[in-house]
Amino acid sequence: MAGFDWQHRIAGPVPAFFLVYMILIWILFEISVKEAIIMGMATWLVLSIIEENIIIAIQTKYVIEERRFDGIIMVAILLIIWSFYYIFRNRYNAQAFRMPITVWILLDLIMLLLMAMLSFFTYVIVKNLPNTKMITAGQILLLIGGISIIILLFIFVYFYGTAYEYRIQKEITEMQIRQQREYFERLLEREEETKKFRHDIINDLLELHNYCENHECQQMKQYLEKVTGVVTGISNKSYNVGNDVINTILNYYLIPLKEKYDVEVSGMLSNNISIDDRNLCVICANVIKNAVEAVSKMDEGRVATLFECGKSYLHIQVENTYEGDIEFDDTGIPKTSKCDMTNHGIGMRNVFEMVKKNEGTCRIEAKDGVFKVDIFLKS
User: N or C: which end of the chain has fewer CB within 10 A?
Assistant: First the structure.
């Protein structure tokens, strides 16, 4: 039988296709070897189920030695699938098939059991039913069941993936809302302090004038130091690099950090750039959040950000100190150190996806206890 043959070892076109497919998706889609194996297994099992159903459909009319047609059937299936993808590629959500590795593993196990059951019952029907009519009826029932399984699998994957993507987008939106609320609260606090300063400045000027009249230079110097200290304190209440989205992120993550650690913010970036605000938020928030989390684990640390905008490029640099070793996966993305490997580690993958989507590049360097991310985007 096709797929799991109970009379022959699995050999030939299907495993060969499986190996070639894994290598191709590993190279073309820049995923890790583990992801290529798991997703390749899922694809092979789906194609095996489709192949099994096609052979069952043929056997209801003709008696064939199906192993002779494995390669032809598999090529035909692939051509049909790629044709549908090419025609309808803009009508479905490609992100819907983006799921955690654990879900792909579970899906592989489910399909493996379904494939084994389908092959087993096909073998039982063909070899043990007494007459042709019963065999044909059994094959038709198996065909209906197999087609139903394929449809249900695709529906499950699509809707689960859509829900998973929606959850990620919801978390990003909630993070943006929290950042905006924190930013505006700090702006209100700063505005209140500015009002107090304006209210007191007349009295301060009168006091300074009095010191001048009495030639009390030392007292005037001390008083000026107090006034400039108030002004400096107000100006240090928030960061401003010229872009509202980045200002929100910087003030949300870095202001609480600078009470204990060294924080440097430099450069300017206008609001008039081509990249979408949401994409910019995903990129900057994830990189800066990772830097803050790494530094927060240290007794002493430093976070430095740089923003530059040229005529045709936008440069974002985030640098932070860290302790321990950083491991990278096969795609060059740092592995998460958190226990929940499924939900964490998504941040940097989102960064790489957004950078690639906006025709940019992302370079990561970890050396001598300093982790540095350089992102270049079209401005």
Answer: C
Query: Residue 328 gets which letter from DSSP?
Result: B
Residue 122 CA to residue 190 CA, distance in Å, equals 75
188 compared with 144, residue with greater pLDDT: 144
pLDDT > 80? residue 216: no
Joined together, the tokens standing for residue 370 give: 């300093």
Q: How high is the pLDDT of residue 179?
A: 66
Long-range CB contacts (within 8 A, 24+) of 23-27:
26/330
Task: Quote the pTM value.
Answer: 0.51
CA distance 45 to 113: 10
The string of pLDDT tens digits covering residues 162-172 is: 777 777 777 77
- The terminus-to-terminus CA distance of the chain in angstroms comes to 57
Domain ranges across the chain: 13-173, 239-379
Amino acid at 212: C
- CA pair distance 55, 57, nearest whole angstrom: 5
Q: What is the CATH number of domain 239-379?
A: 3.30.565.10
What is the tens place of the pLDDT at every residue in 36-66?
Answer: 777 777 777 777 777 777 776 776 666 655 5
Query: What radius of gyration do the chain's Cα atoms show?
Result: 31
For residues 58 and 284, give the distance between their C-alpha atoms in angstroms, rounded to a whole number. 56
Q: Helices 13-28 and 70-88 meet at what angle, rounded to 10?
A: 30
What does the alpha-carbon distance between residue 103 and residue 94 come to, in Å, rounded to a whole number? 17
Residue 120 token pair: 């087993």
Q: For residue 328, which amino acid is it?
A: F
What is the rounded average pLDDT of the residues 64-76?
62
Tokens representing 187 are 């702006």
Closest CA to 108 of 48, 50, 41: 41
